[in-house]
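Many introductory courses stop at the sequence. We go one step further.
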Amino acid sequence: MAVYNVALYRRGAGLLWADLERVRAGRRDAQIDALREVIPRLNADILVLLEFDHDPEGHALEAFVRLLAEPPAPDAPAIAYPHRFDGPVNTGQPSGLDLDGDGETGGRADAYGYGAFPGQYGMAVLSRFALGPARSFRELRWRALPGHHLPLREDGTPFPSEAAQAALRLSSKAHWVLPVALPGGDTAELLISHPSPPVFDDAHDLNGRRNADEIRFWRLWLDGTPFEDDTGQSVSRGPAPVIIAGDLNADPFDGEGAHEEIAALLAHPALQDPAPEGPGGAAQAGEGANATHRGPPARDTADFRDTPAPGNLRVDYLLPDARFTVTASGVWWPAEGAEAALLAAASDHRPVWVDLKPPAP
């Protein structure tokens, strides 16, 4: 299994689909061409994609799956994914309110999740195994989260306003609970999200607080807290083993954000952290901001700007249920060579993979 922020987002609705169709027609696109080589080599049975623009009809995802199944060259690998899932996300969904406190409405930060159009920076799952119907908590109000950390003004009133806080959703994209059929007939649940980056804030720290609470949602879910899903039904965690998968935009040691929140998730007794590593992050440990980082550089998953900040960070995660047996794991990030160049052309993130043995019946 793998998780991969592929950075396949565009500036307008439908543009990703158009780019993918042009590649299918024979046009070259450096990023898409690189991903067509990277993903088949990754050869994951289940692949969680982040920052993949969503359209309601699923045209872009269908075109991408077709491209992956068509080798770009006679000697290049291909991969088929018969099962896939994507759904609506909050990014770019207009709220009609001033959600960032700038006195205006209709801006990207006034959408329920930051974005230029509905579906930008979406999420998707490709699988060789059957996928069940997903539970989505995309519409869950932030203030419905027990112990939430919604920001306040200096005078103690809600920021940016009472009306905004009544409407604000927890998920910047979505929180999905997606069943997947395992070999042998058992079922696991994928817990998928892509929280807001904890940056671009003023003193109210709205994005940082949202990131922390989006991560904390999974801790509460694992503990059995019930939440109302998008259908209005109150549901809580079932008995199936889980796998948390996503770009959580939080490093337990470095960068901005609530380090303690991601550290608490990593330490949750229901989960295990395989602590995957790759040589690419370690090779850059002394460069720019990386030189002052405290976390293990081999565990970094994102090749962010080193000067002046934030440097490379561990933000992409696969956290299996403690009942799984982890047989291998890694961050696919070579230190140099053709593969390193290929991965750099594909995305500023690197694929994180884990090989799992299902729990014994």
